[in-house]
Design brief:
The complex is a heterodimer of chains A (about 200) and B (about 525). Chain A is about 40% helix and about 20% strand. Chain A has one domain: Pyruvate-ferredoxin oxidoreductase, PFOR, domain III (Pyruvate-ferredoxin Oxidoreductase, domain 3, 3-Layer(aba) Sandwich), CATH 3.40.920. Chain A is built from 7 helices and 6 strands; from the N terminus they run E-H-E-E-E-H-E-H-E-H-H-H-H. Chain A is globular and about 40 Å long. A 6-stranded mixed sheet of chain A has the order 2-3-1-4-5-6, sandwiched between helices. The longest helix of chain A has 22 residues, at about 170-195. With about 525 residues, chain B is α/β, with parallel strands linked by helices. In chain B, about 40% of the residues lie in helices and about 15% in strands. In chain B, the strands form 4 sheets. A 6-stranded mixed sheet of chain B has the order 2-3-4-6-5-11, sandwiched between helices. In chain B, strands 8-10-9-12-13 form a 5-stranded mixed sheet, sandwiched between helices. In chain B, strands 14-15-16-18-17 form a 5-stranded parallel sheet, sandwiched between helices. Chain B is globular and about 75 Å long. In chain B, about 55% of the residues are buried. The chains are: A alpha/beta (about 200), B alpha/beta (about 525). Strand 2 (about 30-35) of chain A pairs antiparallel with strand 7 of chain B, so a sheet runs across the interface.
Amino acid sequence: MKTDIILAGVGGQGILSIAAAIGLAAIENNLFIKQAEVHGMSQRGGDVQSNLRISDKEIASDLIPFGNADIILAIEPMESLRYLPYLSRNGRIVTNSAPFINILDYPEIETVLDEIRKNPDNIIIDADIIAKNIGSPRSSNMVMLGAASHFINIKFESIENAVMKMFASKGNEVAEINVKALQAGREASKKMING
Amino acid sequence: MKNILLLGDEAIAQGAIDGGLSGCYAYPGTPSTEIMEYIQRNKTACENNIHRVWSSNEKTAFESAIGMSYAGKRCIVCFKHVGLNVAADAFMNSAITGVNGGLVVVSADDPSMHSSQNEQDSRVYAKFAMIPILEPSNQQEAYDMAYTAFELSENLCLPVMIRITTRLAHSRSNVITKEQKRQNELRLPETAKQFILLPAIARRNYERLITKQAKMEELSENSAFNKYIDGTDKSLGIITTGIGYNYLMENFNEKPCNYPVLKITQYPLPRKLVEKIYNECDKILVAEEGYPVVEEMLKGFVSKEEKILGRLSGELPRTGELTPAVLAKALKIDIYTQNAVPDLVAARPPQLCQGCSHRDVAEMINTVTKEYGKGRVFSDIGCYTLMALPPFDTIDTCVEMGASITMAKGAADAGLIPAIALIGDSTFTHSGMTGLLDAINEKSPITVIISDNYTTGMTGGQDSSGTNRLVEICKGIGVEHEHIRVIVPLKKNNEENIAILKAEMLYNGVSVIIAQRECIQTFARRMKSKKSSK
């Protein structure tokens, strides 16, 4: 089983933490992983993406080929659309609905969401509000990871453990609230799947 | 033996540590920075006192590495591809001195220019210096090569280059580690005067270097890193270098590749293996990341050879990094793409952070240069290069590290007076200081603004060599004390700062304005760690 995920967002939103969590969980499950990320110049408020591939077989390319991504997982709605050519025939968009507007020509948010809805499989949730409601506004990224967790071929407990482990150095409180964000995201998207 | 998840950069760092490393020398540069950063926080490296402090620039880094090798110990020196230009003098001559302790040069190329001003290919440099290259195709090879490269270096008594490109440097994968080797003991070179490159000795060393070429080729020929994978369909043979192999194989996920494949990861090119695939196959596709180095070698200059396909023949794009898609196209494999990027998706270029001191510096310069008109702000490499973009449009040039000061001087020599040089603190100590001395010696009418945020910001906040000593450095170089002006770039000081810049631009000589305010990223990090340590 292989899962190819494009992680998308804006520099500073924490897509690399999502990648790191999935990576840790994958290794715990003895899966192969390749995860290409962008460092340097484009990190500063620009669009950023990471190509994340997990599989039970060896993986050749660090980059996901066009038309191959099972999931586009975005912390920012417009950014989910930037990588559409990578989405596979049955691919799914899982995105935050809250826009991050740091450019003058950001399109109308409703037209952005309509464009996302054109893809038959889409999960759109407001991760910013969910994160705020649990008292950790900076954890939108973990909410989004939770929302996508249904479609990643790794046991949810493994992802929880990975998040716990990742934030352990920042204290128990921080780790626990991020796991809470993860769970809240998973719940929210479950409701969407079940209609 | 452990299975860990590492970036390509980190795999090299871990491989070097396990391979008996005594010192890492480097200057930050994307995509190479994480090698040193990994060593700096690695427990084994700290416990064993492995050298892991940033150097002022790539040349000083390289020379320190030669020194450590002279003393018998194993070291790596790391930088991005253009950093090798800065270190080139030391690099070229290290092939003439040869090494004592193993010396590994890691040069990280950036095809597609994700964070660079060109896509030069470090393999050309290694060929120029006549030293072996290891070009890993994946993270495990990156680890294994760093682990064994010291022995290769010591056996040949030559520096060895590990050449990587952005995608390997910044991609994570599983790596199985090996047993840790001990560091070398302190041991002076056995060959007398090996490191004295007086012409008479250099000639002898150079002859030795030439003699070693055959041995190097033989090692490539028998290297376990180079693989010949036979195939039944001889209508095409494929030579891949480095990560080109992965993009090729990605296209043969569901069906086997029936073409013979020669996977090159150690150079010089293994002649027998290349001849084998060349003779057996009707056509040869060369898939290499970077310049068409191998393709050009195979093709030669005068031959009208149409058998060799690649970047020169147009089968692969002439510029930019390889991808699975460009390989698919070259192999005439159909790929599925359902969707185009919708028109409404707007570009989101990188930006200076909100609250960044460079923003206030830009505003100050824009206000003052209004009177003089456009075209006189010479800038440099760093976050402040983003002042080239709206809403700032402040700077007119950015060429290479340190060029702001010397280009401003040259323009002033030509009559563009006054000229402004805008440079960051780390770039200034990297290679701005010597240019400033030139300007002082000729009393050039330039105003140098050092936008000092106490860090190497663009690469993520590494230590900057001259922190808290820039005034003393400028005084020492000879800038007149009254024309060294320290300002704090904050909104509330804007008027005062503008007045200072205006006044200094009227001065018919060298002024240095040091605009000091901590990088808000490093500031935030510092506050966070202060909070968590409470």
